[in-house]
Amino acid sequence: MLLVRETSQQLFAHYHNTLPNHPSQQSFEIANERVLVQTLPFHDPRGLDWTIVVVVPERDFMKPIFAMSHNAIRISLIAIGVVVLAGVVTARYIATPINALAKASRSLAHSFDRCESHDTPSIPPQNIHELHLLATAFAQMAVRLKTSFQQLETINHDLENRVQIRTRELQQANDELQRLASIDGLTQIANRRCFDAYLAECWQDARDRQTDLTIVLCDIDHFKEFNDTYGHQAGDDCLRQVALTLKRAVMNTASGELADGGTALTARYGGEEFIVVLPETGTDQAQQVIEAIQAEIKFLGIPHERSSVTHHVSLSLGAAVITPNLITTPARAIVAADRALYAAKTAGRNGYCFASIDHLEIEPIESL
Questions:
Q1: Is residue 187, in this structure, part of any structural domain at all?
Q2: For residue 172, is it within any domain?
Q3: Measured in whole angstroms, how far is the alpha carbon of residue 118 from the centre of its chain?
Q4: Are residues 156 and 213 in the same domain?
Q5: Are residues 337 and 229 in the same domain?
Q6: Exposure pattern of 157-177 as b/e (b: 16+ CB <10 Å)?
Q7: 250-270, pLDDT tens digit by residue?
């Protein structure tokens, strides 16, 4: 943890509280120990930016190099003595392999500085035993460094794949949670939370564009008597069937009536009440949608022997057609639709009424 914390502090201090957007290498002193730090940026396809930081203590890979360097120095000193004693001819047999080792060292260092996994630099066979041992040790070290670098690349690639998989899983889980949070558990249509959010969005759009917006509040007639007669399990089944029929009727009718590609929403408002939002919809279009709803509910034909208006389940509906402005509010529109619904019930149920939000006037319509 100390190494991670100190490395993070050194990086942020070096890059002024930001990380580079390109591969880089730095050397820092942490806890009285020199470490090499390599940063590799990673750009996730979904827009997340990652930075992979690799920290390697200098002593882990410099000790063999220092040891070989010391051997090279000793051999060089010996070679110098031999050159002095033996002359130019002997010097040629020593200088040539040393130059080959130096060239191989530079090639290897250049390869790792550029974060490349090139083949290990070849070292010519050495005629002198000591230099042959040094060349062999150097070649082995180069192979180990190359293997370590390849392993690091494999680990980085595996980490990137895991991050992408986890990101996709999190996104899928988040999408599912969002869906569940907006669906009514019993009827499997939009819930009150989803309705509130959608109405606010449609209201703002209608106010900006000065277009009509219709809210339709629906209530199952004599639903308490239905529950008392057939039981709560049958009542739940009735709610599910009515909800799906209502949604289907709205989609089939409103999809061809709404202007500018608007989308209608059907939601459970509470208990046996449902609510429909019709963007870009005036009175005539709304009336067509409402009449389609009542026709579909009648065709559904769920028996209701204790209903005072018909022998099957029926709906009473109240609608409010609004052109939002700075004075009107969504809450006021819902109140208008609720009063229109009350008027429809007072008029005998199994019918619908329209309300004007400006004066909360009710326009009753004959029951079907």
A1: no
A2: yes
A3: 38
A4: no
A5: yes
A6: eeeeeeeeeebeeeeeeeeee
A7: 998 876 445 444 589 999 999
